[in-house]
Amino acid sequence: MNHIAAIDRTSRPILRERGQREVFCGLTSIVWLHRKMQDAFFLVVGSRTCAHLIQSAAGVMIFAEPRFATAILEERDLAGMLDAQEELDRVVDRLLARRPDIKQLFLVGSCPSEVIKLDLSKAAQRLGAKHAPNVRILNYSGSGIETTFTQGEDACLAALVPEMPRADDDAPANLILVGSLPDIVEDQFLRLFAKLGIDNVGVLPARNAGGLPTIGPNSRYLLAQPFLGETAQALDNRGAQHIDAMFPFGAEGTSDWLTATAKAFGIDEAHVEEVIAAPRERARRAIAHHAKKLSGKRISFLPDSQLEVPLARFLAQEVGMTPIEVGTPYLHQRHLARDLDRLPDDTRISEGQDVDNQLDRVRADRPDLTVCGLGLANPLEAEGLSTKWAIELVFSPIHGFEQAGDLAELFARPLRRRDRLEV
Ligand code: SF4
């Protein structure tokens, strides 16, 4: 059943839905996490379905030395827990003996491992003690029960937080950049932070096991992704301070993100302006090029990646599109407040999903573009509606000044395609 509730920060009504959902599970995150963490291995403890999902999400890839695999739970595992734990130990021992390059091993839970209540945290502790100090062994859940695909990253990063070395109470302030970004984008941001005068910067996830940032009361953390609620909570619990900012999409989102960070480090406003003025202007010009196509167009987001709110903010504020409905699986109000504040008052915000109701609203609204999961795109296209796959936005470099034009282009492309089809 639907109900409307008020949001404190914005007094904006939120439509909350609980019903049938159409999203990928958290195992999907392994596809980008294994590229980011270069000495990590992801061992999914699951079924053949889980193995198929990761293989198809990752595309057809032939690796000499793959960095993810599935330990398949067989029927006899379902019958006796002892067997499953012993078998897992054997699989891990064999894997680590053969692959000395692995420095971090994640045991990733799935629906089947959760259904049979296979305790992967115990397994991680037992195996971690055995293989320390050469290999760090952690666990998290990528199960599709009540989760969405970007939450796989959240759960993985939250598992890493207790491993971060403790900084002394009087250690100099440091910045922790949180969220997995393509290396090229991460490097752009690190250069900008250095120009701003923030040199003591660590990244979660680090590219290598030894690179985890230190954390203490003088640490400030900056989220690069809006879907990291559990990780943020774990960082709060370790005493780090959250930097409140818009997410770094487009010229204005990126400016706000950098400016808020500089302010948290006491950097002079005039210096910030000097550093960001030129790249911000480049980004504005790149966006303007695509805004001609997009301005005035109506867009709906169905809940999928959790990037929906900041992307809708970008499209409304910087491109001139009109967001009709912005649906997101979970609304992290604290992290999204600044983006939410900049959405038009009459944009409908929904949290959770009841797919039939949502499709009915899309059919009634008939937006020019609908951002949705793969499974819903084809039926909507068949009804004459243009769609954009939400997952493509997660796999593309879209953060920061230099990617702002490409981000706008990703939304312009399906509209151009439809124009061509209609000629
Ligand atoms: S974890 Fe669950 S939802 Fe994901 S592939 Fe495995 S069985 Fe399917």
Description:
By secondary structure, this protein is of the alpha/beta class. It folds into three domains: 3-22 and 276-422, Rossmann fold (3-Layer(aba) Sandwich); 26-147, 3-Layer(aba) Sandwich (Rossmann fold); 174-260, Nitrogenase molybdenum iron protein domain (Rossmann fold). Helices cover 47% and strands 17% of the residues. It has 17 helices and 15 strands. The strands form three sheets. Strands 1-2-13-12-11-14-15 form a seven-stranded mixed β-sheet, sandwiched between helices. Strand 12, helix 13 and strand 13 (348-353) form a beta-alpha-beta unit. Helix 7 packs parallel to helix 9 and helix 10 (250-264) crosses helix 12. The protein is globular and about 60 Å long. The structure holds iron/sulfur cluster (SF4). Iron/sulfur cluster binds next to helix 2.
Radius of gyration: 22 Å
Strand content: 15-25%
Tell me the overall shape. globular
**Mean pLDDT metric:** 91
Output the CATH topology of the largest domain.
Rossmann fold
Give the second-level CATH assignment, the architecture of the largest domain.
Answer: 3-Layer(aba) Sandwich
What does the largest sheet look like? Answer: 7 strands, mixed
CATH homologous superfamily of the largest domain - what is it? Nitrogenase molybdenum iron protein domain
Structural class: alpha/beta
Q: How many domains, in number, for the residues?
A: 3
| Total beta strand runs | 15
Spatial sequence of strands, sheet with the most strands: 1-2-13-12-11-14-15
Helical fraction equals: 40-55%
Our count of helices gives 17
Supply the CATH class of the largest domain: Alpha Beta
Listed once per kind, the bound small molecules are: iron/sulfur cluster
Distance between the termini: 43 Å
Q: Unreliable segments (pLDDT under 50, ≥5 consecutive)? A: 1-9
